[in-house]
Amino acid sequence: MMSNMDSKGSVDLFEEKVERYIGAIDAFEDYNIITGFDREQVRQRAREIRSKLETGSAGPLAGMVVAVKDVLCERGKKVTCSSETLRNFESVYTATSVQRLLDKDALLIARTNMDEFAMGSSTENSIFGPAKNPVNPEYVTGGSSGGSAAAVAADLCDVALGSDTGGSIRQPAAYCGVVGLKPSYGRVSRYGLVAFASSFDCVGPFAKTVEDAAMILQHLAGYDPMDQSSSQAPVPDYLSEIRSKKHLKIGIPGEYFAEGLDPEIRFAVEEQLRALEKEGHTLHPITLPHTNYAIATYYILATAEASSNLARYDGIRYGHRADADEME
What we know:
- The protein is an alpha/beta fold.
- The chain has helices at 8-27, 39-55, 96-103, 146-153, 170-176, 210-220, 238-243, 263-278, 291-310; strands spanning 34-36, 65-69, 107-112, 159-164, 179-180, 202-207, 249-253, 282-286.
- α1 packs antiparallel against α2 (39-55) and α4 packs parallel to α5.
């Protein structure tokens, strides 16, 4: 991925990359990965960024091409949450996470498919049709941020934004073979994220490499006065952290290797654990005794919060309003 480009060759490569991504989005149209895309707006924004690059005034994310899950608000753009209820809803403000990328001169190329209102784990429940996995179109992408994971996997962008309430970044990243990071709650502002379960929702990145994920998180993270749950803790230097040679103590929960775990997945995880040991990290068996209650607890809390958050789509303030003739 390119950013902070300072040579004419690199600037030319940026525009070539944008055109390549535009062509790829067209080529993958049948995969239902993208929900919103305006090629002429993208080209205009690319020209603006190129001008900044040529004058040396570009931000640190100039050259980065980003797709955004259709649950994050962008002023003047349709924000559908893949729901008929919001098919024609146009946002009047921009989410903090999105604005921070715009302020650093990232190029937002498209909006991505998802499970309706982020409630699902396959990106099949969408008015735009089920998203297909670029690894194998017969497979689902995972969800609810499946469109963002698939956009990165299909090379339609450098990185993508998703949201995670109960696995909606982590699971599709695994299904599509890309890096997905759910930050700690409050690390990234939720302002402008259409709420599912407000005490769980997190915004995070998908990327092709850990370094790219760290780079985008560096600019997403930080306190936001518009989000009362936003953390005021200092933001660490993520790129320095991942390049650090320090050795870690890593806990391995025994409950996660319970009966029913696919042998192939067990082998893959254990292989990675052996690789970590070879790098000098130490592994420690631990126990998380409440694991068996986690899913039940999640569904009690998340569905209660979702019921409250979805109450706003009453057809008066937000959402589809039926015509009287349709009610006969």
